[in-house]
Amino acid sequence: MGRMLVFRLGGHAKIADEDLALPPANPPAESFASAQIGMGAKLYYTHCVFCHGGMVMPDLRRSGALGDRDSWNQIVIQGALSANGMASFKRWLTSEDAEAIRAYVASEAEVLKSEGREMPIPKTLAQSGNKGQ
Ligand code: HEC
Fold first, then answer.
1. Residues with CB under 6 A from ligand 1
2. Which terminus of the chain has a lower count of CB atoms within 10 Å, N or C?
3. How many whole angstroms from 48 Cα to the centroid of ligand 1?
């Protein structure tokens, strides 16, 4: 699910709340071993952060696939979304690696949820009473 915000320079139109709304953090109810999370962090910062660490590509902490081992594997290893620019990582990662990354992202989703920092929106908008979700 891609998102694109178009900013009009000098425009005064307000951005509606729903245009900025992101899905909530989606930490699965599973628990993961800390060694697995640590391994996943390394792999995430090697293979995923370039595309997923910003505002444009899906934030994996909010992904519907995060709570489901099989969907995650289908996307990351089997290339289910390759037609949309999310290539299969089969050549570089094993299913076990992909699962470790899921464990790491899940732990980050937990942090995001507990911080209640659901919407990374510009400060000015946040200050104008936009409470986020
Ligand atoms: C070259 C850029 C790129 C890299 C690197 C990349 N992805 Fe993606 N990823 C994408 C794009 C683009 C999409 C959106 C695909 C779509 O809209 O269907 C996506 C979507 C996803 C989704 C589905 C998100 C959702 O719920 O909408 C998952 C899960 C995912 N990527 C996991 C990963 C993991 C794990 C890694 C690291 C192993 C990774 N990606 C690395 C580009 C990338």
1. 1-2, 47-48, 50-52, 57-58, 60, 63-65, 72, 75-76, 81, 84-86, 89, 101
2. N
3. 8
The per-residue pLDDT for 33 is 96
- Residue 26 · residue 108 · CB < 8 Å: no
**In a domain? residue 90:** yes
- Tally the domains of the chain: 1
Nearest by Cα to 1 from 48, 47, 64: 64
Instruction: Summarize the confidence of residues 5-33 as an average pLDDT.
Output: 69
CATH for 65 = 1.10.760.10
Domain residues for the domain of 110 are 34-116
What local confidence, expressed as pLDDT, does residue 24 receive? 87
CA distance 20 to 62: 14
- pTM of the complete model beyond 0.85: no
User: Is residue 133 over pLDDT 50?
Assistant: no
